[in-house]
Amino acid sequence: MKTQQQQNRSALTDRGFTLIEVLIAIAIFSVGILAVAKMQYWNVRNNTTGNMTTQATMLARQQMEALKSQDIEDLTMGTTPDPSNPIDEDGNPGGIYRRQWVVTNPIGGGSRQIQVTVSWVRNGQNRSVVLTSITRGNGT
Fold it and tell me: For 56-91, how does the pLDDT look when each residue is reduced to its tens digit (9 = 90+)?
């Protein structure tokens, strides 16, 4: 049998959390969850932007290599839009990317400068990737 003093001590140590303490803990937890959710949103958005930029770079590189492998006399001087515009990430018609290239004769003689531009619109903003190279044709 417990004495009165033991019962009083037991009553003091068996107290639970108050409603205020629970509400404060929930508020702190909610702020943490919101921060994680916001970080996840930005992570997905940045990954998508990076993926699109990589695809555009690969499209520009693909066209640059095709142009550099041609005979230099076959390269048409001036600006040429891709006849398949708009193109998808594989270069097939029907996508979000627009590709064009400019061939100039900056040095003279047997070389040409090639500039390939791939552009697209993302979240209302115009974005583009530009690759520039000088070639003597036939893959050099």
Answer: 999 999 999 999 998 888 888 888 998 989 999 888
106 cis-preceded (ω within 30 degrees of 0): no
Burial per residue of 9-18, b for 16 or more beta-carbon CB atoms within 10 angstroms, e otherwise: eeeeeeeeee
Write down the mean pLDDT value for the chain: 87
**CA–CA separation, 126 and 140 (whole Å):** 32
What span, in angstroms and rounded, lies between the C-alpha atoms of 35 and 117?
A: 38
Query: Is the pLDDT confidence value at 7 over 90?
Result: no
> 87: Cβ–Cβ under 8 A, 6 or more apart, which residues?
59, 93, 94, 95, 97, 98, 99
